[in-house]
Amino acid sequence: MARLTRAQQQERTRAAVLVAARQEFTEYGYAEAKIDRIAERAELTRGAVYSNFTSKRALYLAVLVDAAEKARASAEPPAGSPDSAGRALGSFARVWLERLPFLGDTPGSGHLQLRSLSGVLNTESARTALAELVRFEALLLALALEPRSAVRTGTVRLAGLALTLLHGAAGLAENAPGVGDPFDLTRAAEHLACIALGDDTEPPHLPYVTPARSTEDRWVPPRGLHDEITGRPVDFGDDGVVVVLGVGRLSAAEDAMRSARPDDEVTIVVVTSDPAEIGRLARLRIVDLVGCLLRVFAADRLPRARIVVDDTATVPAALGHTSVDDLTEIAVRVRDGLVAAHATGRGAGHAAARHRSPDAGRSGAV
């Protein structure tokens, strides 16, 4: 029998730890789970567990990400999409609520069904990241609700209201399984579409955003990254806008999408300085939401943006930025394989999306 390479052995060890950790978290829940017991279940040392996962929190999030990715991979696409926003919200709620625990479920199994983060996010950076991720989820749901129109603030607010209802129901059901009738909640989500939420004017800070600078820079786009929505590899050489956002600034994606031209290929790249925990949290929330969208909306109704979780920050590095954090904002407009405009700082996505080359008025260039 051929000897395993170091990479193969590490992957086998990681897989064994994930299996053991899922058993431990299911039985004891996050708070009472012990790394020593996980190592014993996997027939490994405590050090072997920590060589693959930096903390119990990172391991718990990895278990949830693994479950969410398997659920997304097995999602059966619908024959067609709902024909109204109300029916779409009702269908989305029905799929989303399947995770709620039933009366008699153990706390551990309930935690895993709910993708529970209770007691897990006890740092300021993690709570800030979660708030931004919920706003980002609302944007993605809104893009599915109105796939062929410009992003409307009212629709994003409506999607956020629906997610607030569902997350509230999940939090209650986690502590009191069996409370909250899924059929009533589904009908409530459907009727949310009848609430008139006005479209706000352009955010007040956008007129003060520093314009993107015109460039004609060559770059070597990274390979090996994929779109979390379609699963397909992303070609960063496509004409359009690439927006790199730290997890703590994901709400800025709405401004970038609203400012983009109808024919732009918009790619949102999510980065963090803490891939082990904040990065896994971001992947969990995005993958989990996309898994629900895939079961509700046909391919032509999925959010038109490409979403990339860039754990190793290869995209900003290719653009000349060697350091990123959760507040990073970098954006470029790509044309004919070149970086035609480059913006950094608050509002960078808006600036790159709005950029027009200096000779646009004379030659029709954009």
What is this structure's SSE topology?
Elements: H1 6-32, H2 35-42, H3 46-52, H4 56-73, H5 85-96, H6 107-114, H7 124-145, H8 153-175, H9 182-191, E1 213-218, E2 240-246, H10 253-259, E3 265-271, H11 275-296, E4 306-309, H12 314-318, E5 329-335, E6 338-344, H13 348-354, H14 360-363
Parallel strand pairs: 2-3, 3-4
Antiparallel strand pairs: 1-6, 2-5, 5-6
Overview of the molecule:
The chain is of the alpha/beta class and 366 residues long. The protein has a domain at 208-363: Glutaredoxin, CATH 3.40.30. 49% of the residues lie in helices and 10% in strands. The chain has 14 helices and six strands. The protein has helices at 6-32, 35-42, 46-52, 56-73, 85-96, 107-114, 124-145, 153-175, 182-191, 253-259, 275-296, 314-318, 348-354, 360-363; strands at residues 213-218, 240-246, 265-271, 306-309, 329-335, 338-344. A six-stranded mixed sheet has the order 1-6-5-2-3-4. Helix 11 links the parallel strand 3 and strand 4 (306-309). Helix 5 (85-96) packs across helix 11 (275-296) and helix 7 (124-145) packs across helix 8. The N and C termini lie far apart (60 Å). The model is unreliable at 361-366 (pLDDT under 50).
- Runs with pLDDT <50, length 5+? 361-366
Strand % is: 5-15%
Helix content: 40-55%
CATH architecture type of one domain: 3-Layer(aba) Sandwich
Largest sheet: 6 strands, mixed
Q: What's the CATH class label of one domain?
A: Alpha Beta
The succession of helices and strands, N to C, reads HHHHHHHHHEEHEHEHEEHH
User: Quick one: overall form?
Assistant: globular
CATH superfamily of one domain: Glutaredoxin
Overall mean pLDDT stands at: 91
Number of helices: 14
Structural class: alpha/beta
Per DSSP E runs of 2 or more residues, the count of β-strands stands at 6
CATH topology of one domain: Glutaredoxin
* Radius of gyration computed on alpha carbons: 22 Å
Strand order of the largest sheet: 1-6-5-2-3-4
